[in-house]
Write a structure and sequence with these properties.
The protein is about 50% helix and about 25% strand. The protein has helices spanning about 5-25, 30-45, 70-80, 115-135; strands at about 50-55, 55-65, 85-90, 95-105.
């Protein structure tokens, strides 16, 4: 016979697993698969975007813990949309994704700051993430 306390603990655990499943957008049904999906989600959260001001341009550094087909195009479209030219770039898309670029403003007087560039690149990543999950 299962005690009331044990039953309550199982219900709480089930509730927390369902919350974890929801947060990580997992479609898994068993505990192990939910935890594996959460682990992948945490790895994706390790993705980093940094932006530094360099004179009249910006150094943009994007890192993701996995390969991200199509992400480069989204980031370059964001650069174009902001009016930034890519002056110099290094890209690696093998097991991880790494994009380092120096972008310069196309027109004098575009008052862009680090935060605006970081936000635009972040939005490009989110747009890519949404379109890549639609294809799956």
């Amino acid at each position: 016979m299962v005690s009331k306390e044990h039953s309550h603990k199982r219900a709480v655990l089930h509730e927390k697993l369902q919350l974890l499943r929801s947060i990580t957008d997992s479609h898994a049904l068993n505990r192990t698969a939910i935890i594996m999906d959460a682990s992948k989600y945490i790895a994706e959260l390790k993705q980093k975007v940094t932006v530094e001001t360099l004179g009249k341009g910006f150094l943009v550094d994007v890192f993701a813990a996995r390969s991200c087909p199509g992400l480069l195009v989204s980031i370059l479209e964001a650069f174009e949309g902001m009016g930034l030219n890519v002056l110099e770039a290094r890209v690696s898309c093998t097991d991880t994704f790494r994009f380092q670029a120096v972008g310069g403003e196309e027109e004098e007087g575009l008052n862009m700051d680090e935060e605006a560039v970081k936000q635009a690149v972040g939005q490009a990543i989110e747009k890519w993430r949404g379109s890549s999950s639609d294809e799956q």
